[in-house]
Amino acid sequence: MNLRIIVFFIIGLVIFLLDIGLNSQEDSKDIYVSDQELTSLLSAWQSQVGRPPSDEEIVNIINNLVQEEILYREALLLGLDQEDRIIKRRLAQKITFLKQETIPTEPSESELQEFFETNKSNYFMPATYSFTHHYFSKESNAKERANLAFNALTENGIEPTGDPFFLGKNFYQNTAAEIDRNFGPSFLSALKAIDLNQWSGPHSSAFGEHLVYFKNTSAGFLPAWEKVKGAVTQDYLTQAQDDAIKNYLKEIKSEYRVIINPNYQF
Amino acid sequence: MKLSKSFIGLVTVSTIFMLYASGLYTNFQSDSALEIVDFSIAKPASEKNIPSNPDRVPLYGDLHVHTKYSFDAYIFGVTATPYDAYKYAIGEAIKHPLGFDMKLKEPLDFYAVTDHGFYMGMIENYADTSSKMSKNEWTKPMHNLNRPENVTVESLGARADLFSSVLTQAIIKPYPYWHPKVWKAWLTNNIQVALQSFDYDVHKSAWADVANAAEEFNDPGKFTTFIGYEFTTSTDVEGGNLHRNVIFNSSDAPIRPWTRIDSINPEDLWTWMDGLRDQGVDSLAMPHNSNGSNGQMFEVETFRGSAISKEYSEKRMRNEPVVEITQIKGTSDTHPLLSPDDEWADFEIMDKRVGSRPPTYSMPQGGYVRDAFLRGLTLEWKGQGNPYKFGVIGSSDTHTGAGGFDEDNYWSKAGVLDGTDMGRGSVPLTQDRIDQLDKYADVYDQPISIQEIGGQTYADVGFDQWGASGLAVAWAEENTRDSIFKAFKRKETFATTGTRMAVRFFAGFDLESIDLESEEMVKNAYAKGVTMGADLFGNNDQAPQFLVWAQRDKLGAPLQRVQIIKGWVENASGTPKEQVYDVACSDGLTVDPITNRCPDNGARVNINDCSISNDVGAVELKTTWDRSRV
Q1: Does B197 share its domain with B342?
Q2: Which among B57, B180, B549 has the least Cβ separation from residue A49?
């Protein structure tokens, strides 16, 4: 038993030495087809066609593989992989994925909290305003009517008779962006101060003049940590993947020197 | 005698066998297109109440958007994903294939990505040189088609060629009859599986991605999306465009879109939609570009050429309550030949068949909405039901993921082909571009695509008849999928050519009693009348009254007039008639009772810089009206 192993070992050594002796100047011409490779090729064929390949088809599959491998190696020998954009991009893509896989999938609570602190503005809930208004259409001397109505309302408590507004009278918890959409971009920003529970105006919109009564405003706020944790985790992982590549590039970039012809005509 | 007896016997036996076999067939065969998948994704539930307004608010959106998954969009150089499209709709900037930013002035309320169902996702797969499909010789012209260095203005000719010839020649080729895929196709009633150029897994994953993007961006109360696609069919002769967009009112949707490979007959689409509805998945189909249908979209007979029946009319209206009346490829309201007494009948006309090369004239009769309404009345008069009692919406049909609604923020819709002003034929071509187009005509055996106008040379590719347009507007209580979908179903919708103007429109028999200056006006109108798109029932001696209230786009031009177009058939002969009435004028002017028109309010456009008169026009116009007023 032991003798057999030794004999095999010696034969192997002889073949190895012969191989070195005969092929010392060339690369190996062996094409080794692994079991795994065969299994994956055959199962790919089966999933594509819906049945296992026949013997003849197996021969074809292997022939194709061998052919591809030969052409690939000959192409390498000829240096065809050099300066090929597709190959470069594919390799760049592969290393990108590789680097992205190194980031932890379960960031710690403190890492998430820190990320949240620095990106607070992304999770901020904007301020909202609830108000009612009287509208005076541009169609008939809006400014004058609005001024009269405002005085009558604030001095004598007379309910104004304005015009119906296309989008209605009461606006509930509108954000600044929503108010801009409904009244025009300069409506809210022109208000100097928002005093609750009193009439103010007239304020100009794209459609005329308005007397406005704010019932409620809520300042913008940052939601509680528990409510945003899911979204923060998602954002954290996305950013971590981007950073992984950026940092890797940063580390290694300094070792490279970029040379571009300064006289090139763009 | 004996012979004929045994012959009868044989026929009987084979008939029994056939009946048996067909029973077996239906039991054995599964219909893959009717399988329903829940595409919903787990999202943290919002705690905020969704604001709801019983008087309804106008919500603006686009229901016709293509991304890289559409076969033509990918050829036009588009790499924008459905996710990019939705980002654009909520106000973010995304990239045009030619490198510039596309961004809305104001976000939209709803959006639906509707890629062509036919071969969805396949062209990207051909272009990817690592895919199985790309090993086919005929995919070679598409390899790495949209790698950044290949997406250039210079690639225009090759892309136009791919669009018009290569694809159609290479694409539809079935496997031989003995192939297992052919049997699989038969057993699952999914013909596309039998095509050599088709990979069902790629197709399904593209569709799942479209659905996933819609689910991810749907944000009840703020922004609504619909899972949807385009059913891109046509008549088999003369290329009559019969395209429709299909949207679903749920996270549940079929496992794959029903496409023109399943059937080119729209009636089969409706049967499929009825089948899904029976399983609880509601959907609607919206015909578009009837203008380029060569008169086929609103025919007075069925697809197969038989008479329209009441059942047909009901089935069509059940599935197609709204029609897209305007988009970048022209407005399908009416045509000067159809409405000779309407001075604006030529507004944004595109009188060519969709996708025809060279651009070929499309017959107007049967291709325009106003004509369809009259045809519907005539059919109903004849007792065949009315298949054309639909509401209208606008949409863009962009193929870049980003709708173009304003002329001053516009990139047309065919990516590399018309992303530049020269490519659209808007400005004269430079000499190098002329040479380029000449060369393409030569190399690809295409018609000469330049024309001389006023001593200068312009591209002549049909894009000069396109323009920024349009928006779908739904009167909904709240910005949710269900509320907006219901507005489409009851047809309380309207179209704009891209502006954010709004219009309320009611009909009833007692609307003139409503105080137009009252805050309760809308509430009263809903109580006393019916809204746009609804049926008004009354006696023959009652004349309908209308209430209309229009508001300008706060960032756009003021209003000049409101028109009501009356269409009817004469009782005795069923002859269709049309009359255009101005009903409200700006600047305190009144309608001339002889011409039915507002006097000129002096509004002008300065052709040199596109500026408009800023001292005339109205922010809103409202009135009640009935025929006797004139």
Answers
A1: yes
A2: B180
Cα(B58)–Cα(B484) distance, integer angstroms: 10
- The DSSP symbol for B293 reads T
Same domain for B454 and B543? no
User: What residues contact B177, with CB distance under 8 A and at least 6 apart?
Assistant: none
Among residues B465, B484, B513, the one where a domain terminates is B465
The reply to whether B87 falls in a domain is yes
Distance CA B549, CA B78 (A): 41
Rounded CA-CA distance A142/B481 in Å is: 38
> What pLDDT shows up at residue A28?
75
Print the domain residue range for B604: 501-629
pLDDT of res. A233: 86
In a domain, B285, yes or no: yes
Of the three residues B446, B465, B484, the one that is the final residue of a domain is B465
Residue of chain B nearest A133, judged by CA positions? B519
The count of CB pairs under 8 A between chains A and B is 60
> Three-class SS of residue B623?
strand
Q: Prior bond to B358 cis, omega within 30?
A: yes
Inter-chain CB proximity B44 and A231 less than 8 Å: yes
For residue B26, is pLDDT > 70?
no
A76-118 per-position pLDDT tens digit: 888 888 888 888 888 888 888 888 777 767 888 888 889 998 9
State the Cα–Cα distance between residues B192 and B32, nearest whole angstrom: 11
Cis peptide before B97 (omega within 30 of 0): no
The pTM score is: 0.81
Q: In this structure, are strands A128-137 and A208-218 parallel, antiparallel, or unpaired?
A: antiparallel
Domain count, chain B: 2
What ipTM score was computed for the predicted complex, to two decimals?
0.78
Nearest CA in chain A to B617: A139
Residues B402 and B515 in one domain: no
Residue percentage of chain A with pLDDT more than 70: 96
If asked whether residues B528 and B450 sit together in one domain, one would say no
Residue B609 lies in a domain: yes
**Minimal CA separation from A79 to chain B, in Å:** 21
| Band of pLDDT at residue B25, cut at 50, 70 and 90 | very low
Whether B551 and A166 lie within 8 Å, measured CB to CB: yes
Average pLDDT estimate for B587-610: 94
Q: pLDDT tens-digit profile of B273-300?
A: 999 999 999 999 999 999 999 999 999 9
My answer on whether B299 and B429 are in the same domain is yes
CA-nearest of B592, B574, B575 to B583 is B592
- For helices B310-319 and B266-278, the axis angle rounded to 10 degrees is 70
Amino acid at A7: V
Test mutation, B198, B619, B624, chain A, max A CBs within 10 A = B619
Q: Using DSSP bridges, classify how beta strands B545-551 and B620-625 pair: parallel, antiparallel or unpaired.
A: antiparallel
Both B336 and B270 in a single domain? Answer: yes
**CB spacing of B517 vs A185 below 8 angstroms:** no
**For residue range B362-404, what is the model confidence (pLDDT) as tens digits?**
999 999 999 999 999 999 999 999 999 999 999 999 999 999 9
Residues with Cβ within 8 Å of A83's Cβ and at least 6 positions away in sequence, in order, are none
Q: Who among B129, B144, B554 is closest to A207 (CB)?
A: B554
Fold of A125-218: Chitinase A; domain 3 (3.10.50)
Distance CA B82, CA A236 (A): 23
Nearest to B371 by CA among B270, B296, B463: B296
pLDDT by residue (tens digit) across B200-222? 999 999 999 999 999 999 999 99
Domain locations in chain A as residue ranges:
1-27, 31-82, 84-112+224-244, 125-218
In a domain, B45, yes or no: no
As a whole number of angstroms, the distance between CA A229 and CA A123 comes to: 10
Report the residue of chain A nearest B200, measured CA to CA.
A48
Can you tell me the distance from the alpha carbon of A150 to that of A209, in angstroms, rounded to the nearest whole number? 11
